[in-house]
## 1
Amino acid sequence: MSHQHLSIPRGPFDLAADLYLPDAFDTAHSHAAVVLSTPGSSVKEQIGANYASRLRDSGLAALVFDPAHQGRSGGEPRDLEDPYRRGEDISYAIDALTLVPGIDPDRIGILGICAGGGYAVHTARTDHRIKAVGTVVAADMGAAFRGFAPNGPAAALDELAEARTREVLDGQRNRVNWLPDTLEDAAAAGITDIDTTQAITYYRTSRGHSPHSTNRRLARSDSLILGYDAFAQVEELLTQPLAVVLAGRKGSTGSYEMGMRLWAMAPNPVDLYVVEGAGHYEMYDVPEYIDRAIARLVPFYREHLSVATPGRVGGHWRNG
């Protein structure tokens, strides 16, 4: 089996997760593991699986999960994108890994991709069970949404407040698209930006489509995102070693600039790598580009997750 399905307890509901274990995994020994934090709107079978399977093939255990309220995970209301809950999801995933026989709870790292990179960094600041932080085309969702607000973020928050009042009065929750559903819809809306069209090609065609990824976001999510700062207090709190992987073609997502900002802020930056020729969304599934990122990340994780805890395996002490 390429991976195991797990249900991770998260209060009143469970997170759906997949655990990728290398062929040489032996519960009698201590192993390092990496938690995957995935892009906004994606599910575990998409980008996270592309990276988790390669980490496994390189000898590292990897855990990828659907966020609360999305995919196959529980949680109501559906399609909520709450940056703070996304961070809590990561910590619950670490809880689950701690109890897996053969996983050393002191050798757990994280890999965050796109918005998941921002969530990974934000969580690692305060959850120091994370011993090494890797990012690929990391994005600060709050900064991105504030930049997209045509009349500024404060005006956007006023509009969202009015919209939520209408929802309460009408008894209906509004959902919005992450992306146009089709390339034809994008063309009709006059959208020609290469990053947006590549995102649609990935998420909304057979190339990367999953029936569990709805392409819808609960509208009340946006006020939470607008006030979010993924890199707040990084200079003081993100003491773990950091590896940053960027796409060489900057494009309109801002992930190149955000990644460089993170690199400059971090107190313990270890490795910065630019995948030349790649665009943001090409880092999701183009084998050449993913393989180049993984080839850089695996040595980083091996070095910084290398020290086993004597006598302890999977959260349990061994006799003798």
## 2
Amino acid sequence: MQNSDTYPDQILEQPEASTELAVPLQAQPSVDLGLQYSFRFKGTASEYFGIWIVNILLMIITLGLYAPWAKVRRLRYFYGNTWFIQRRFDFTGLPSKILMGRLIALAVYGVISLAMKYSAELLLAGMLLIFLAVPWLIRSTIRFRARNSKFGNSRFFFSGSNKSAYGCFLKCIAVTLFTLGLFLPVAIWLYKRECWNHLYVGQLKFKLNADWPAYMRAMYMPVFLFIGAMAVLAAALAMLFNLSGGLGAEHYAGLFMIAYLVGYLFIWPLMMARIFITSWNSTSISRSQFTTDCSQWRYAWIILSNWLAKIISLGLLTPWAAIRMYKYQSESLKLVLVDNPDDLMNQLQQDHNAIAEELSDIFDLDISL
């Protein structure tokens, strides 16, 4: 299948031979192009709890050395239980390579920690170096994760360069600083566009078609909704206070503060929900178009209730919360399929190392699409 978006200097190779995680070709059903297909997630909280608790115990016993194997087990569980038209996803990263990357990342972190004790100048230099390395870290992490992600027998591929990563980084910093944070949604749009517009599966290219005003609306609508709701509630409580003499002003003030706290806690989850919806409803892969029937209120409630569940359970409900969120996200996605997945061809690419990804984990950089 020809695709005008594929780089002419990149060599295409045929899909790899089937593995035990790929459905054999003869078992795969024919695909009717032009129809809408849904994603499915078959994992359960009870299954994932077993993986999660074993990972934690082994990381404690091995003083953290088991972390790469824990990461691979977690990713393979989520990927392997995500299906699209009878084909599943897979993560093929090797724990041994991730371990090497983690050891190097820990060494870098140790040097910076020592510098903090002995020299403020060295500490500032180290933190500045990490800050300047953020674009490289993000780009390398996405490239490593894409290289080791598969749909059926077809690998993902990230074509972003360090030049484009640093260009995006500088634009995000400039937009955020010069507008005093008011145009933070534009920075998020720039980051999403950089990630999506350089991502491929096989030879098919993803593209984010949304513009920056869509992200402004996505993030600021919950704020305006909150302000409007609080104004209406304050007016209603004031009217009730004037009409009834039974309750004192402190009772109405208490009701207002409770409503204010609940509404305030919903603002960030609603922003995340609207960014998710805006992004996926505006994403295409070659000629095929993604859509989502995700409800912003349901999405926000899942986030907020997951927070509460993890706090109340002292973290024991973390696997349940992770499965609950991922299942809702994946099963809300639909793809109007125009390009046949049987015609995917892998792009020839190098086997990248995991150093940047481990540095991102250690310095708590959230690298997500």
## 3
Amino acid sequence: MPPLVLISGPEVVLVERALTATVDELRHAAPDLDVVRLTAATYDAGSLTMHASPSLFGGEKCLVVEDLDEASDELQDDLLAFLAAPEPDVTLVVTHKAGQRGKKVLDTLKKQGARVLEAPAIKTDRDKTDFAMHEFRRARRKATPDAVRALIEAVGKDVRELAAACSQLVADTTGVIDEQLVARYHGGKVEATGFRVADAAVAGNPGEALRLLRHAIATGVDPVPIVAVLAQQLRQLVKVGSAGRGRSADIARDLGMAPWQVDKARRGLSGWGPEGLADSIQAVALADFEVKGGGRDPVYAVERAILTITEARTGR
């Protein structure tokens, strides 16, 4: 392993994993490895130089400098001084989320052959789908697309929670992970999200959509994200409907969606026409305005949008 490692990207879960893997690899070669962590926000000038100095007892060291993107001038100067004359038996690991701060240090690290480990942001449903599928593959388990979709709908807001849910399913179950298995563990969360509300509304089922809405509100879900999911699903219907024929994977890549979202939108397009979609999108835009302070009753605003959507579909 090179004595320099750069972990680049904002996704905390991936940063932590890359850091843990790096330290474990170093400890495998040097069991008595001394690990020192320095954080940009609390850094004192000269600390890096002090910790990098050889110990009276010798041995390997790993200096971890976190959040270079928040580094003071003093920390950057100390890093550049270290890189100009690195100490033997010292591995330097630097994390950097994003931005231009610390660029000179970044450029120097890369020029000197630092091993770069990427930790890109996991934001979109496609990102989360890829992440969850990788989690299951890494554990040598198979999960169906519907299972991954249900898991993301239940816990996908937070990547750390998504990773924990994948680990739990792997540890507690055997065989193929399917949607029924996810429902057994996370069914209550799935039902209490805006996804189920939107599914029922887009399918033209007002009774079920309103029941799920009331359940979600009763369990503490804010109307704002419910409206956001309604808008997202309607936009996906429009985008997929305009994309024409083709493989789901190809269309998903072009539209920035997950393949399961394309398949779901294709199934959901039955019974929809351009006018109905336009009316529904306008209704959701009005609801969005009202739930963010423009109306008196946020819940009523969502209910009215749901009824407009179901009527727009079933009316065709």
## 4
Amino acid sequence: MNTHLQTALNLASRGVPVLPLRVGKVPFGNCPVCRGNACGSRPNMKTPGPCTCARPCHAWAAATTDPATLTGPGWASAWRQAGAVAYHPGGVGLTVVDLDDADAIAWARRELPVTRIVPTTRGEHWIYQGTMPSANAVRPGVDIKSTMSYARWLAPGTGTMAPLPETVRALITKAPAPVRPVTPLVPAGGGECRHRTPVFLERGLAMAEQRITSATTAVHATVYRTFLAVLSTHGRCGCLTDAHAARLFTAAQAKGESARHCADAWSNARTALGM
């Protein structure tokens, strides 16, 4: 049996969702049915699992523990060409702190609790119990691989796995990106505004934050639609301030959206409304 497939089956038997990687540590491309996301998967792969085809599509979302899938005919060609095995850390309740160089390792040894460590080609994987949104380049030489991401399987590692520390979670908590001021589209004092009693605006913002926080799929699209709804209702009278918009940016970033995505979604929503 193919060595990579045997490794994958051993991991799957222990409940670890796995997938093959091509030479170069990248996933296999989508099958013809799913190419160009024709199957309906979003381009950013923020889907909860694989599509219904029988091939390893959509990167991390293809990870599975099902031996019938792993050994099925749709995966056979991938295993023959595979250069490595990957797993979905978030799918088994883990977070991998990927340290790419000596400086990143030195930082981890100073700042993070000792945990299970796996040597990599250039650095180390520090593995913790617990999940969080994945993010790249959270600091020089450091990536976070957990939910909606994959990590290369190299070895079981050494050491006792520690709970995911707040220090790691805080790496993806960034200050909200600067918000483009919302310019009123009606003259100041040009009529009584229903938002001047703060209850209406506060209720709308709270509902918008909840909509973003509750999103489990299509987060980027949900953020854009929410920004659009808030701006269409509250953005034309001058009552919506930068502080209000920053609340929405913070909620979106807590779901894994980057500051740039937030700024782009906000700008695109304003443009769509002619603001």
